[in-house]
Design a protein that fits this description.
- The protein is mainly β and 126 residues long.
Length: 126
């Protein structure tokens, strides 16, 4: 699966950005998708993820630092997952990566994911 992340940029604190991640693959709807971020000198951190349920809906989970501010969503017709980021803070500054778990499990552990995008820079100024 090839992943292409976009939408990063420079924004003031309190502002919003929406990241997009376009994926290849014919069974995108069954993939679990995740967003991670990595700030300079820090480990890659889980931000948000979703996973497919047999009911046809998706279960979304979030890292503690972004709960209530970020929202993950997807458009299966476009093979794209989004990360809506609101109320941005300077500490949200990082390179953001999307990832795909073809097995559909997802979750906060990096090792679960099979494929990674190239990352998009988000910078939040104070």
């Amino acid at each position: 699966v090839q992943l292409q992340a976009s939408g990063g940029g420079l924004v003031q604190a309190g502002g919003s950005l929406r990241l997009s991640c376009a994926a290849s693959g014919r069974t995108f709807s069954r993939y679990a998708m995740g967003w991670f971020r990595q700030a300079p000198g820090k480990a890659r951190e889980f931000v948000a993820g979703d996973s497919w349920r047999s009911s046809g809906t998706y279960n979304a989970i979030y890292g503690d630092s972004v709960k209530g501010r970020f929202t993950i969503s997807r458009d299966n017709a476009k093979n794209t997952v989004y990360l809506q980021m609101n109320s941005l803070k300077p500490e949200d500054t990082a390179v953001y990566y999307c990832a795909a778990d073809r097995g559909g499990v997802g979750g906060p552990r990096r090792v679960t994911y099979d494929d990674w995008g190239q990352g998009t820079q988000v910078t939040v100024s104070s």
